[in-house]
Amino acid sequence: MSKKRILSGVQSSGTPTLGNYLGAFKNWVALQDAGEYESVYCVVDLHAITVRRDPAQLRRQTYEMYALLLAIGLDPKRNVLFVQSHVPAHAELAWLLGCYTMFGELSRMTQFKDKSARHADNINAGLFTYPVLMAADILLYQADLVPVGDDQKQHVELTRDVALRFNGLHPGVFTLPAPYIPPVGARIMSLQEPTRKMDKSDPNPAAHILLTDTADVIRKKFKKAVTDSDSQVRYDPEAKPGVSNLMTIYALATGKKFPEIEKDFEGMGYGAFKPAVGDAVAALLAPVGDTFARLMDDTGYLDTVMRDGRDRAAALAEQTMEKVRQAIGFVAL
Ligand code: TRP
C-alpha cells in the first residue's frame, strides 16, 4: 500500500518565529522522522504577491524560507521541497479550479475579509482568489492531509468542497484532503502581550523570537518577557498567561512536563526561570541559526536543491494535470 501524502505551504514573508517553529515546523520534522507519510512542502511565492512586494526582498525572502526549511532539519531527499512559482501547473490548475469555485464561497472566507480590510487600497482579484490557488497546491499533489494552523482550516474545507464538486462532474480525479491538526498543538504567545499570538509582524521586536536571533538576543528577550507579580512558576493560562506561555516554550524546548517544571523551579521565582527558558531556547535554535547562515552564503547550493525539488514536484503535478485536462475535455495533441 502506498503511503498517505501530506502537503503544506509556507509564505515567504519575513523570518519565521519560535511560534512558527514550535507550532508547525518542529512537527514537520517529527513527521519526517516517523516516516509514515510522503511529504511535499512548498514556499508559496505566488501567494506572497497578493500584497505588494519589493522584487529584491521577495527573492531574498524566498531563499530565506527555503534555507530555513533545510536548517530546521527537513531532508530534501526524504521530502519534496520546492518553490511554488517553479511549477507553473499551480497557476494553471488555479484557473481551472476557479471555474469550479463560487463567488459566494470566496466571499465568505474570513481571511479575505480581514485582509481586504487591512489592505483597503489594494483589494485585488488575487486576494479574493487566494484560496483557489491554495486548493490547486493541495489537489495537484493529491494530498490526503494538510497540516495547517487554525486560521487556514476554512481554506482546506473550501478545497474539499471544490474537489467534491469537480469529482461530482468528473469522477475520480482528486483525492479529498483533510486538515491535519498536530497531536501537540502548541500555540505560542507574544512575550510582551501573552494573550496575543506570537507574530513576526509585531512592531515590538521583544515580543517575538526570530529563528535567526542570536543566543544573546534570545536570552535578553526572555529576560524582558512579561510575567505577573506573584513570581510562582505555575501553569495557569487563565490567571498567569505570561508564565504559562514561558512554561509551554520551556516544555517544548526541553521535553519536560509541566509538573516537573513546577517542581524544579519551586520557590525560585521568575529570576531563575526566565534565564533558564532563554538558555533552553538558545540551545534549541543554535544549530538552526548556524545552518541557516551557512546556507544563505551558498545560494548556488540552494539553487541546486531547489531545482531537484522542482523537478520532482513537476513530475507529480503533471500526472494530475493530465487527468484534469482529459476530464474537462481539452484537446490533447
Ligand atoms: N495559505 C497558507 C498560509 O497563509 C499557506 C499555503 C499556501 C498553504 N498553500 C498552501 C498551506 C497549501 C497548506 C497547503 O499559511
Characterization of the model:
With 333 residues, this protein is mainly alpha-helical. It folds into 2 domains: 4-186 and 298-328, 3-Layer(aba) Sandwich (Rossmann fold); 205-293, Tyrosyl-Transfer RNA Synthetase. It is built from 13 helices and 5 strands. The protein has helices at residues 18-34, 45-48, 55-71, 89-98, 103-107, 110-118, 125-140, 153-169, 215-223, 241-254, 258-264, 270-296, 299-328, and strands at residues 4-10, 37-43, 79-83, 145-147, 178-180. Strands 1-2-3 form a 3-stranded parallel beta sheet, with helices on both faces. The protein has a two-stranded parallel sheet with strand order 4-5. Strand 4 (145-147), helix 8 and strand 5 form a beta-alpha-beta unit. Helix 10 crosses helix 12 (270-296). 39% of the residues are buried. The model has no long low-confidence stretch (mean pLDDT 94). The structure holds tryptophan. Tryptophan binds at residues 7-9, 11, 44, 47, 134, 137-138, 146, 148, 152.
